[in-house]
Every structure is written in C-alpha cells, then in structure tokens.
Write a structure and sequence with these properties.
The protein is of the alpha+beta class. Helices cover 59% and strands 12% of the residues. Strand 2 and strand 3 form a beta hairpin. The N and C termini lie far apart (63 Å).
Length: 90
C-alpha cells in the first residue's frame, strides 16, 4: 500500500468522523429544548375551561406525563406542558 493510498484512507475516515459529529451536534441542539412543567393550578390557566379535578383525573389515568415532587401523596404534581396541550390539541 502506498503512502498516497494511506493518506486517502485517513482523509476518508476524517470526513466520516466530521460528518458524524456534525449530525450528533445537530441532534443534541434539537433535544436541548427545555421541558416546561406546570402545577395543577397552572394547567387550569393554560387550558381554558379545565378544572383541577380533570387534571388530577388525567394524572391518575396516566394520560399525561408528570412527576411528583416530595414524598407520598402530599408531594406536588408537576405536569409536562407539551403533553397536556397535546391531549387537548390547544
């Protein structure tokens, strides 16, 4: 194998690596969109006509993504705003 052929192979590998890092960087920037979480009261303000009871029912039925902060049933429920809006297509 000649030196020119080795250099060509290295150049091809470098081009592929650059392409892969560019794709990963663009995917990371699109994924870094911040997740907005709402309390139950904020959910009722985001969707007009929605009651706290309905939001709690959506959580109980696992129809929206949520997390519970704190311990046990007294923990505050935070609901993913994007998922809530998808449910009601607002």
């Amino acid at each position: 194998m000649t030196q020119e052929r080795k250099n060509a192979i290295v150049d091809d590998i470098m081009a592929l690596l650059i392409q892969l890092t560019d794709e990963e960087t663009s995917q990371e920037t699109s994924r870094k969109k911040p997740v907005e979480m709402l309390t139950i009261k904020e959910c009722t303000q985001a969707v007009k006509g929605l009651s706290e009871h309905t939001v709690r029912q959506l959580v109980a039925q696992n129809k929206v993504k949520y997390i519970r902060t704190g311990q046990g049933k007294r923990g505050k429920i935070l609901i993913n705003k994007e998922e809530l809006l998808k449910v009601f297509e607002v």
